[in-house]
Amino acid sequence: MTEGHKPLRDLLTELLAPALSSTGERPAITQLQRLTGGAAAQTWAFVAELESESHALILRLGQDQQQFGAALSKRQEAQLITAARHHGVLAPEVVVSLPEDNPLGEGFVMRRLAGEALPQRILRDDRYARARENLTGQCADNLAAIHSIPQTRLDNIPAMDADTQLDFYRSAYLGYPLRSAAFEYAFRWLRQHRPDTRDEALVHGDFRNGNLLVDEQGISAVLDWELAHIGDPMEDLGWLCVNSWRFGRRDKPVGGFGQRDDLYRAYERASGRVVKADHVHYWEVFGTLKWGVICLYQAHVHLSGSEPSLERAAIGRRVSECEVDVLSLLRGQQP
User: Fold this and answer.
1) Which CA distances in Å does 74 have to 31, 64, 103, 106?
2) Which side of the chain, N or C, has fewer Cβ within a 10 Å radius?
3) 234: phi then psi, degrees, rounded to nearest 5
4) CA dist 154 to 64, 99, 120, 236, Å?
5) Element at 289 (helix H, strand E)
6) Phi, psi (degrees; rounded to nearest 5) at 202
7) Coil, strand or helix: which one is 94?
8) Measured between alpha carbons, how far is 69 from 72 in angstroms, rounded to an integer?
9) What is the Cα–Cα distance from 307 to 290, expressed in whole angstroms?
10) For residues 133-143, average pLDDT
C-alpha cells in the first residue's frame, strides 16, 4: 500500500471497527487496490484483518460530481441491495455505509464474493461452460425476485415510466453537441409506441452481462443497482437483450449466452407474469437508445476536460454501434 492511500485506509479502519468486531477491535487494512471497470463509480478491493480473522471486502464510492443524473445515491443503493438480499435476490451483503460529511463522499462497504464479472471471460472461458447453460434461467429467477420486492420496503426510489425516462434522456441528449438522425427517429418511434402497462415494480435498471458476478455454477451476485427505479418490469428483460451486452455473441440475444424465448418462459414460471414479445421489444429499442445517450454523456465528460478518462473516451466511441443497432431493431431486424 502506498502512502497516498493512507487517508482511505485510516477512514476504513475507523468505520469497520464497530462493524466487524463486537469489541471494537481496529482492523488492519491491507491489499487495498482500485479495480478496473466502473465509469460511474470507484470500486476498491481490500482485506480487513482482525486478530482472529480476515474479511475480504469491496468499497464502492460514488463520483458524485460526474454521476449521470438518473442514478441513485450510494446511500440509497446500499439500502436497496440490503432489501433485495432479504427478498431472495443474489446480492452482496452490505457491511456498512459511509457516514455523512466524510471526506470521501457517499459510499458503502460490502462483502467480496467469488466470481467473474468480465463478460468476455464469462462467454468464452471453458471454466464457465456450465454457468452459461444456467445463466438464462438464473437471470429470470433473479429478475422475478427483484420485481416481487414490495414497494413498501423501498424508500425514496424514484418512479420512472416510459414518458418520464424519454423526457430525461431526450433532455440529456439535447445537452450534447452531437445530433444523430438515428436517435431522433428512435425518440419519435418510442413516443408513438409506448406500451399500455399498469404493472409497476422495482426495476433494477442495469441488469445485464457485466453487472453479474458469475462462478462455475452461474450467478453468485447481482451488482450495480444505481439505476434502479419503480417502473415497467419488462424494461429489465429488454435491457438484458440489448446487443451491446452480448459482447460479440449476436446469435445469443440474452447477454450473449441465451435465447429470448427461453428467458421469457423461465421468467413467466418464476414471476407469474405474462411476457409479450412486442412489449419487451419496445424496451430493447429504448435500452439501445438509452445506452447511446449514456455513451454521449461519457464522451462529453472526457472531451469537456471535467474528467479526462480513457475508459470514458472508449465508451463514447460506441455511439455509432448504438445507431446501427437501433435502426436494425426499428426495421424489424435483430441486431
Assistant:
1) 23, 9, 15, 6
2) N
3) -65, -20
4) 22, 20, 34, 18
5) helix 277-303
6) -70, 130
7) strand
8) 8
9) 22
10) 98
Amino acid letter for position 136: T
Domains delineated in the chain: 32-111 (3.30.200), 119-330 (3.90.1200.10)
pLDDT at position 1: 40
Phi-psi bin for 197: left (phi > 0), alpha (psi -120 to 50), beta? beta
DSSP string, 170-198: HHHHHTSS---HHHHHHHHHHHHT-----
209-238: average pLDDT:
96
Measure Cα distances from 100 to 60, 76, 103 in Å: 15, 13, 9
What b/e readout covers 8-18, taking b as 16+ CB neighbours within 10 angstroms? Answer: bbebbeebbbe
pTM for this entry? 0.91
C-alpha–C-alpha distance, residues 290 and 296, integer Å: 10
Longest CA–CA separation in the chain, Å: 64
Q: What is the pLDDT of residues 290-301, one digit of tens each?
A: 999 999 988 888
